[in-house]
Design goal:
The protein is of the alpha/beta class and 316 residues long. The chain contains 13 helices and eight strands. One of its GO terms (molecular function) is hydrolase activity.
Amino acid sequence: MSPTLVQTTADLSYVLPGTTFYEFDSERVGARFGVWVTLPLLYDQEERDYPLVFQPDGNKAAPTTAPPAALLRDDPINPIKPFIQVSVGYVGEDARRLLAIRARDLLPPGEPLSSEVDESMLDNLPRAGMLSRADARLYLDHLRDPHADRFLAFLTEELDPALRSQFRVSDSGTGLHGFSYGGLFASYAALSTDHFEMVGAGSPGILHNSTVLDLYDQAVADESRPTARHLHVTVCERELTYPSTYQDLVGRGAVDLVRRAGQNPVQGMDVTAAFTPTESHATGSAASWFSFLRECYAADSPTSTLARVHPSGESQ
């Protein structure tokens, strides 16, 4: 008898050790979200509190960034302070059409759109196999009427308190990282609230007339506006150097934001920037995440004996 493949559903611990999955109904958004919570490796052994670090686009972010989390504090090269990783995504029908749904949550209200956002998407997206025609229409509608303000309220007013009631959470160091439209949302959040102290904006889709740039100018003019304490902006090298639509959709606006920060700093907010070499928009999300952690959550030294062992297994 020849061997056969047996289809089954993998236990979450097989691919995301230390991660628990929850579903959460948001009154602010009027939708149900999926939430992947990854605890530090020694959470059950240590009597201490940990900062929360949020990510949107959890359906992609959790599988690509949560598995290394257990090793970050013991990395002898780039040790990271332990934190509770919270990846927020979608469930059910919304998970299948997340390209359309995330536009609802990640674009600021009134955000200008590029000239490429038009009715032709209703044919192009189904032809590319990305969305059905009905979901392409939903995507276009959400792009034209987004509500990142509601999603931000969900994170800060609903999900954050729920997590603090269940886990040992520090009062300081709360973070947020997003990539692409998630990076646009992170930039918007960094200039709209001080709930997140550390914010990472990876390849944010900031156009030349983005509301984010207006918010930055408002923060410069009004020192009483709440903002993040640290905003770290990353752009993929090839989004800038390779001739493509990403030069205008990502590179130009991100560089403009960093330029403004250098010329007119916002009182109380540090802005740093980094390029992720060789990456494109399709591959840069995880690299942006780790750049953010190294910049905002770096530890002085590894915290366990694992870091003092060579790859060969021989102790130093």
